[in-house]
Structure formats: C-alpha cells, structure tokens
Amino acid sequence: MPEETSMFSFSPVSQLSRAHDHLARQGKSLPDAALRVLAREVILRVSRVGAATSPQGCQPKTAEVELLCDALLSADDTAAADLVRTARLDGMSADALYHDYISEAARRLGQRWDRDEATAAQVILGAGRVYAILRDLREVFLAECLTAPPGAEAVFANVPGEVHGIGTTIAADSMRRNGWDITLRLGLGHDALVEEIARLQPTMVGLSASLPSVTFATARLIVALRIRCPQIWVLIGGPIVGRDPDIARIVDADAAASSIDEGAALMADHLADMNRLRSERA
After folding, report:
1. Are 175 and 182 in contact (CB under 8 A)?
2. Would you state the pLDDT for residue 158?
3. 16-29 burial, b for 16+ CB within 10 Å, e for fewer?
4. Looking at 95-104, 143-152, 219-228, 244-253, which range is the least confident one?
5. In terms of C-beta density within 10 A (0-12 exposed, 13-18 middle, 19 or more buried), how is residue 84 classed?
6. Predicted confidence (pLDDT) per residue in 237-281, tens digit
7. Could you tell me the CA-to-CA distances from 215 to 11, 14, 80, 145 in Å, in that order?
8. Rounded to an integer, what distance in angstroms lies between the CA atom of residue 6 and that of residue 92?
9. Over the stretch 112-151, which tens digit does the pLDDT of each residue have?
C-alpha cells in the first residue's frame, strides 16, 4: 500500500488544517487519526442520506457518478467541484444534486476505501472535497428549502462531552422571551445529536462548548451537521469563545458569540439575510 504519512499536506477538511496549525503554534499536535475520523464522518453521514424524489430522467447516470468519484480522488483540486457546478447549470435540482449525485459518489468513495482501491490519504482528500462542495452550495440548498418566509427559530444544543447544560438552557430561555422558537437538545451523544438535528432540519443551530478539550468534538459535530443538513448556519457559544476568540474559524462555525446578546444579534442578522435571499428568489 502507498505511503500515507504527512496527511495534512492533502488539505483534508479545512478546519482540521486550521486546527492543526493552531495547535502547532502552541507546540502541540493533532494526531493523523483525527483525519481518518473526519473522513469516515463525511462518508458515514452521506451513506445515510435517502434517495431523492426527482422525476425519472433528472437523476445522474451511473457513469456520471463514477466520474465524480474519480474526480474526488484526482490530482485536480477543482475537477469534482467543476462537475457539480456543470450539473447544476444543466438543471439538476439541489435535491438530486445532494441525494443522487454527491452523496452517491461519496458512498462509492467509501466502498473503494473498504476494498483497498484507494488509500486513506486519498479518501481523506476526497472526503474533504465533498465537504467543501456542500459548504459552497449552502445557499443553493437554503434557497430551495425556504418555501415559506423563514421564522425566528433554531436548535440549541451542547457539544457532546459537555457535562453542564445550564448556560445553554439560560440562552434558550432568553431567546424565547424575545420571540424565538428554540428547540433545546441536551445530553445527547454525537450520533444521536446529529440524527436528531437532521430530523428537525433547522436553518440555524447554536452549539455551546466550554473547554478547549472539546474542540475536536465540536469540529467533528459541525462536519457531520453540514453533511446531513447542508443548509444550516452554525453559531458557537459558551466559555470556549472567551478562551479562544479564533474558535469559529478553527471548527468552521459561521459565527461565535461570547454573550447571549451577541448571539441574539448574530442570529437576527442571519434571519434577515435569509429573508433577503428568499425575496430575491421569489
């Protein structure tokens, strides 16, 4: 099997590279095993995505999916994104794009890994590209799911591994008093929380974390959520923001808030952005 050292040179999921650099500046390191975990996370989540309900003839052909899988593993950094962009311009719906094209290609990527037809380093690269493509297409997915004016609603949750939920509960209660519909989920493990949020399909998620020790758990959670709910906007809050003002960039959250008032303002701004997006597409 080919040599698989120096996996960070493959630029996997973007925030893992940033986390690696951040830790390196502190004289620490992130184990290469973390990259395998994130790659598995991407492939696991897309494997749970059901087929789209697109009309017959609007779905990609098997050969097109195989070509996308090849592009995800290729030396060309833009090949896979270019194929997805072309499919979109040719009229493929966001639903088919996600469920039948990108997700199926990622499933085949995992199958090649399981059959030793691709190295771990190659699959880490491919999984990172899947994540980046879905991240770039967030506005497309969001526009198609906004069939009605977006409301002031969100899911608030603790990052798995957090022991105390009092801060998250207080934040949720404060937002409710200001007219927001907040669904609170506390004490769930990683898989259970991801699937619960995927079931709810919110447009906004607020995650609470306290200590730097949950940084990787937060990054992993956000990767999984963006795969399962590509339309979501993620806010990170809690004491971890005060301890590390760069935390949003490291874990790939959309914003970070060190106080409830700051978080409320950021969420209100995103709600206004969603309403503008819907009015522009109406």
Report:
1. yes
2. 96
3. bbbbbebbeeeeee
4. 143-152
5. buried
6. 999 999 988 899 888 899 999 999 999 999 999 999 888 887 776
7. 19, 14, 29, 30
8. 37
9. 988 999 988 888 888 888 888 888 888 888 777 665 556 7
For residues 218 and 226, the answer to whether their CB atoms sit within 8 Å is no
Q: Looking at the chain, which residues constitute the CATH 3.40.50.280 domain(s)?
A: 149-281
Spatial neighbors of 230 by CB under 8 A, at least 6 apart, are 98, 134, 135, 137, 138, 141
**Whole-angstrom Cα distance, residue 102 to residue 138?**
14
Number of neighbours of residue 95 by Cβ within 10 angstroms: 17
Structure tokens at 65: 């999916």
Q: Which two tokens stand for residue 35?
A: 């990259």
Domain range 149-281, CATH architecture: 3-Layer(aba) Sandwich (3.40)
- Tell me the backbone φ, ψ of residue 142, rounded to 5 degrees: -65, -45
Residues 80, 39 contacting (CB under 8 angstroms): no
User: Are 72 and 105 spatial neighbours (Cβ–Cβ below 8 Å)?
Assistant: yes
For β-strands 204-208 and 153-158, DSSP reports them as parallel
Name the amino acid, one letter, at 52: A
